[in-house]
Design goal:
By secondary structure, the protein is α+β, with helices and mostly antiparallel strands. The protein is 34% helix and 13% strand. It has a 7-stranded antiparallel β-sheet with strand order 6-5-4-3-9-8-7. It has a 5-stranded mixed β-sheet with strand order 16-15-14-17-18. A two-stranded antiparallel ribbon has the order 1-13. Strand 3 and strand 4 form a beta hairpin. Helix 10 crosses helix 11 and helix 18 runs parallel beside helix 19. The relative contact order is 0.11.
Length: 618
């Protein structure tokens, strides 16, 4: 193990793609920006983020299940009309008329048109939600819709089709793909699939980070070339660890349909304000909690089911107290459902047990003993407790209108315990300064005067010895705000440089694919420069190829302007906006053109230098 690795292990327990950032709220992270000013000596190094894994859990089905379902069943069900055909979009395939026998002979994923048949040319690559943007301007998750530039598919038809379900291949690796039925649930909150060993296999819509069209992930790149039609492939990147679900549809129109529907749903999630999002997540959680507790499946909860649920949620209340609150929430007095809670009654019960005592006492104090506050009493609370100045009644009435759930209270200008709790737990009740939600520091100082969010061994999904290398991690860390990524380059087969952790069993990925990923995601989350730290172990010929790839892929983003040696300071982040910087040791200008490689860089491993020394001595 080389000296740098030993030091790195001592400083950073996890040597994957850690992003060094101080513990902070999302708003604080956004406000600090990727280049944090150095506060001076004595600051401790910040901890690393948890490791990221891209695991996709998929289970195989029995041959009987596969035979019964057919290769691509899409039954709309009785009384439901088939989705009407739409004009061709982006990946349109003009299929020739054929007999059922011909269709069956081609299989669900045709690759070759067969001898004597002309291959249909592909339409120009274009997303159904393409948006024009100026050079270098970042976009967030590609969720902005621009109807002026494209012909929009019928979104409601797409959603209906997604809810009916579609059979697709779930690709897990070369030669490893399973057939599953994917569908959108009735609440339009999750993508689900069956069969699955998981009782509740799903991907929440608001957990989706990106929808990637085409065969553009590590898994697809590892498959044989031409194994799947790229126009029939798409990937869903989701979760905090950026897990990847790679899917292959039977035809390109199906891909367009799903991508259009998913982006429509994601656009709605993105446009929500914090209060609406909080309310939606709360309602979703309550519905799933109620459903999991309802063992009988009759839509009603008994007292024993409620007690079991509270134990599972670690709610420490005595049985006597639970029974008392259960009885208060039960409005079915005298009918057959007495002693049982339906969903609305369960929500009322939940509110009773989840009310925070300290908030209730504040409400009583500033409401002069009442269980609500008037607009003037709310203004008094904001001035005394929240240290706000010149709070007007109009502002307080707006708070009541936005957060009070009871219509009668809103009409009277009152705020009760539910509205009061919502307000204090919302962004408006946050102690964080809203002016700091954007970068507000001086970004015109020299680059060396900032802390920079940096990733070490960016390409690794796990440990430094046996784990997989993935280009998808570069997309994840760059979207998370990282501004400096590491690329360890080694000689690869067929003259193609590869990226992996040298002298280990970690897997290898192509340098060109890494560069393309960095170029795509460099400025999604921040306009400030991206630094690529090249640990270069390649021969001179492959170094030349690396340089040509970077010039070709990065184009004008690549900063090739030499520094003025008379300058006392480095350029500022503001000056270097939308630029990509290469950090590596340059070859000497007087290098003999006949040599295979240049000098050993400062970051080369100790064992490599020892081997070079042995060869020279021998």
């Amino acid at each position: 193990m080389d000296g740098d690795e030993v030091r790195s292990r001592q400083q950073h327990p996890q040597h994957r793609h850690s992003v060094h950032a101080m513990a902070q709220t999302p708003e604080q992270a956004a406000s600090r920006g990727p280049f944090q000013r150095n506060p001076g000596p004595g600051m401790a190094q910040t901890p690393e983020c948890p490791q990221h894994r891209h695991s996709v859990h998929a289970m195989a089905q029995t041959p009987e299940q596969a035979a019964s379902r057919g290769p691509f069943p899409r039954n709309p069900g009785p009384g439901m009309a088939q989705t009407p055909e739409r004009p061709q979009h982006r990946h349109s395939v003009h299929a020739m008329a054929q007999t059922p026998e011909q269709t069956a002979s081609r299989g669900p994923f045709p690759r070759s048109p067969g001898p004597g048949m002309a291959k249909t040319p592909e339409q120009p690559s274009r997303s159904p939600f393409q948006r024009s943007k100026g050079p270098g301007l970042p976009r967030s998750k590609s969720l902005v819709l621009d109807e002026a530039q494209i012909e929009m598919p019928d979104v409601h038809s797409c959603i209906s089709s997604m809810q009916m379900g579609m059979t697709m291949l779930k690709v897990k690796g070369p030669g490893h793909a399973i057939t599953r039925m994917f569908y959108l649930d009735q609440d339009k909150c999750s993508i689900r699939w069956k069969p699955s060993r998981k009782a509740d296999a799903k991907i929440a819509i608001d957990s989706i980070r990106e929808i990637r069209e085409g065969a553009c992930t590590d898994t697809f790149h590892k498959c044989f070339e031409g194994q799947y039609d790229s126009g029939c492939c798409f990937s869903i990147i989701h979760g905090n660890q950026c897990e990847v679900l790679d899917l292959v549809a039977r035809q390109r129109e199906d891909v367009t349909e799903w991508i259009a529907g998913l982006k429509f749903l994601l656009a709605g999630v993105t446009d929500e304000d914090s209060h609406t999002r909080q309310q939606r997540l709360r309602d979703q959680w309550l519905k799933s909690t109620f459903k999991s507790a309802d063992k009988s499946g009759d839509g009603l909860l008994s007292i024993s089911e409620v007690i079991t649920l509270l134990r599972r949620l670690n709610v420490n209340l005595s049985k006597r107290k639970v029974k008392q609150m259960f009885k208060e929430a039960d409005t079915n007095t005298g009918d057959q459902n007495e002693g049982l809670l339906d969903f609305d009654e369960f929500v009322n019960f939940y509110k009773r047990i989840s009310t925070r005592k300290e908030l209730y006492m504040l409400l009583l104090r500033y409401g002069n003993g009442k269980e609500y506050m008037t607009a003037s009493e709310l203004a008094h609370f904001l001035e005394v407790e929240q240290n706000m100045f010149n709070v007007g009644l109009r502002h307080c009435l707006d708070i009541i209108k936005n957060f009070e759930p009871v219509p009668e209270n809103v009409q009277n200008g009152w705020i009760g315990i539910d509205g009061f709790s919502r307000f204090l737990l919302s962004r408006e009740g946050d102690i964080f300064n809203p002016k700091h939600s954007k970068v507000h520091q001086d970004m015109t100082r020299p680059l060396s005067q900032y802390y920079i969010a940096t990733s070490h061994n960016t390409y690794l999904l796990g440990d430094q010895l046996l784990s997989k290398s993935s280009m998808d991690v570069y997309a994840f860390v760059l979207q998370s705000g990282c501004r400096c990524v590491e690329v360890d380059c080694w000689d690869g087969p067929d003259g193609e440089p590869v990226v992996y952790h040298g002298y280990t069993l970690t897997s290898k990925i192509l340098f060109k694919n890494v560069i393309q990923t960095i170029n795509k995601y460099a400025f999604v989350s921040s306009p400030y420069p991206v630094i690529i730290s090249l640990e270069n172990h390649c021969c001179l010929q492959q170094q030349i190829k690396m340089a040509s790839y970077m010039i070709e892929v990065f184009g004008d983003k690549l900063d090739l302007e030499p520094l003025d040696h008379r300058a006392k300071y480095l350029p500022s982040p503001e000056h270097l906006k939308y630029k990509i910087l290469i950090k590596a040791k340059k070859l000497p200008p007087d290098l003999d053109e006949g040599v295979d490689s240049g000098e050993v860089s400062d970051e080369d491993s100790a064992d490599e230098m020892d081997r070079s020394e042995e060869r020279r001595v021998g």
